[in-house]
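Hey,
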Amino acid sequence: MFTKFLNLDQEKQDRIINAAIKEFAQKGYDNASTNEIVKEAEISKGLLFHYFGNKKQLYLFLFDYCYDLIADEFFKKIDLSEADFFSRMRQAVIIKMELLANYPELFNFLQAVYLEESKEIKQEFENKLKQLLEINFAKMYENIDTSKFRDDIEQEKILKIITWTFEKLSDEELNKAKLSPNHEIDYQKVRIEVEQYFDVLIKAFYK
């Protein structure tokens, strides 16, 4: 669908992507202006729609681009041969913090997607994000040493409880961000809180 755009030279692609990410991250979907995007990217509006069709398709492309880039970098770095569940989860938190430092604008955009309330795209993205979350959790749980978990509780239930715990923690942080003036998440604070939950969950579910 985006072949014409992907055939452009990399410098021009980067200009358009960076301009669009900045505009959507700062203003949200409904308030983002394609006029501002083309001005920043130094292209015509006709060309932007030639490449993407419409504003929604541009937004969908940007989400896939940012998510795929971050996910690709994440899975390059994480050691999936680490069989201890919580050691692997700690790795994941550390890697995410590193990626946040390396790709702040991409994370700002993805955070804006999670906070997005636009009726035009909200339901579509909620479904999309849920599917991606399920896929990535499944990948993260591959080849885990389940012998460390307690025998008196079904392992499936343990993993569900852990998953739900961190989903709820994520939801709470996003809700706090919605109420804050700049929609910011204190990721360092979140990392400390996650460690506290790790301690509780290890005591609850490991032998």
